[in-house]
Design a protein that fits this description.
The complex is a heterodimer of chains A (137) and B (534). Helix content of chain A is 25%, strand content 28%. By secondary structure, chain A is α+β, with helices and mostly antiparallel strands. In chain A, β5 and β6 (113-118) form a beta hairpin. The radius of gyration of chain A is 17 Å and the shape is globular. With 534 residues, chain B is of the alpha/beta class. Chain B has 3 domains: 21-140, no CATH class; 148-247, PDZ domain (Pdz3 Domain, Roll), CATH 2.30.42.10; 253-410 and 445-496, 2-enoyl-CoA Hydratase, Chain A, domain 1 (Alpha-Beta Complex), CATH 3.90.226. Helix content of chain B is 21%, strand content 21%. Chain B contains 12 helices and 27 strands. Chain B has helices at residues 4-9, 11-18, 77-91, 109-115, 137-140, 205-215, 274-288, 305-316, 318-321, 387-396, 478-489, 505-513; strands at residues 55-56, 73-74, 133-136, 143-145, 148-151, 154-159, 166-172, 190-194, 197-198, 223-229, 237-242, 244-247, 253-257, 262-266, 292-296, 303-304, 325-330, 349-350, 375-380, 401-406, 414-415, 419-421, 424-427, 431-434, 446-448, 457-459, 461-463. The longest helix of chain B has 15 residues, at 77-91. Classes of the chains: A alpha+beta (137), B alpha/beta (534). The interface between A and B is large, with 41 and 68 residues.
Amino acid sequence: MALLRHFINLIVMNRLVLLLFCCGSLASCKISLPANARPALVVNLNEQSQHELKQVISKALNERNVTLAKQVFVDSHRLLIQRKTIMGPDGLPIQTRVDEEPIIFELYKAGDSCYIKRVDNQSNEVYLIQSIECRPR
Amino acid sequence: MSLNRTLTVSVIVVTALLSFSGCGGGGGLNDTPDPSTSTSWTQGVFADESQFKNLCQSPRSGTDLNGDAFPDIQGTTAHENHFLRSWSNNTYLWYSEIPDLNPNLYDSPTDYFALLKTSATTQSGSAKDNFHFYMDTAEYQQLTQSGVSVSYGIEWELVSSTPPRELYIRYIEPGSPADAIALGLSRGAQITHIDGVDVENANTQAGVNTLNAGLFPSESGESHTFTVLDVGSVQPRDVVIQASEVTYDPVPIVNTFASGQVGYIFFNDHNFVSEDRLYEEMTAMSEAGVTDLILDLRYNGGGLLYIASQLAYMVAGDTATSGKTFEEIRFNDKYPTVNPVTGQALQPTPFYSTISQYSDNYTQGTALPTLNLSRVFILSTDSTCSASEAIINGLRGIDIEVILVGTTTCGKPYGFYPTDNCGTTYFTIQFDGINDKGEGGYSDGFSPINTVATPGVLITGCSVNDDLTSTLGEISDPLVSAALSYRTNGSCPVAATSPKRTYSPTLKNKAEAEGLILDLPLRLNQKIYLDPNR
């Protein structure tokens, strides 16, 4: 029992340490991905965790408005973001012959914590997501 | 051919996605515009556009969406007009057909921009350039998860954007809000009113705003009331639909016919997530040993060109595509070898034979499945556009027979690099695409060979109207049955008379002939589908 309590304390402390590195807001919490991080999927995505994911991703993209699926990271550990489709007056998409690269985030689990990492550019920024549960993919 | 090459070529477009200021030059330390730049006009003489870039009548303050200060500097409307004039002269595909109008005589850059295009017409009499737009840059920068949008899960079929309008449901995404059993909605249902406004006749801006707001919800949770006339019913009923974040399956319908010899794939969107879905379904088709394929692109408006290339490869196979060009883009004659926007050497897009780095489930470089077909049946309407047409053109370029069943495609072999200046993003045609044989320029679209009215490039096939009352991808679907019939006996069905709820190009042409459709609006936003004017 004592061992279990110690273990829980360690997990709590680890999260606390991570949070202390954060600079007030989640979006500014730029950290490194732990070496033991593994690709992960979200478990039990609820409104709160979806809201946090959207907020963090939006802030990571300088407050750009991003539409996310209700099941984001549930079936895939990768999130591909592209420009919203703009419809022309004929009802057809305007930008229809494109090869734009996506913005990509990936979900990882390390210990008891879940992280998203931006992987499409060189910044490789990592963000701790507090309100979600995740499991290895 | 692997995909890395193309993605290198598209680096500048990446910048366009990640950078608020977009592409098109300007903004660097060495080309900071000078507000004292002269705006005098000499006909036929064009200064470099960088001299005018970011000189704005109303400079934006603060930072852009990358966190960088806006590059805008106080200038004048004339500076903005001069930028548009020089940029168009430099990069517009048909720059020599633009009238050189004095930019100092126009007090609105967007009004001036509207004139910076060719007024030529195509063989059918349509405008040669139907794709000349602008929109607010902030709106253009909005992002979404690939394959996801805030909607009801309905694709609309609008017959005329001006009165008298007809509006139908042409497709409902499975599992979406509109697919709820309790709503009882189906393909082919007509919408007569939205939030109490008459769809057919609304001719005030307020009325049209209501219609647009209902058709294109902007927020998840938003509800609107639709008065619906179900297929076969004369009794309208009201249905409240609530929008949410809908995940669209880009390949929602797959089927086989003729004892499994003929595969059918309904492909609806060339987006990133479509790669894995196409891989899975084409693998299944390959393993099943189908000998013919019906590729349904009737509502596929285009998207990522590399997806189109991969799909064409999977249809044709390695031998037919090896060393061949899927599509090569051409800029105006000032840039025969170099992309004027990226500055990179022009390189053709090959037929990609492997999985890209964007796949979720498959390792980059995995070989794509192939059907090795010498012909393919493609189902089309006027919503079959751009990258979908590139599939048709690309396959024809390597002598794969395309049998087109349906109606004339939209006619968009063109592309552009949307370019921001002073908070407005401008779309002007800068390149077109040609196939391995150098064929392109299909401004009037591709048409089945027996098309009667205003055909585009005529190719083998059957002219058949899409019937919104039929079930997509079933034998009762007239496009599917015509393809199967042609496969069996080489002949096309007699064109049926159009039932009331069949979306009919004839009806659209009739409206155009009667002058019911005015010039299409130039300014884009998410809700500009309708126009109040007669």
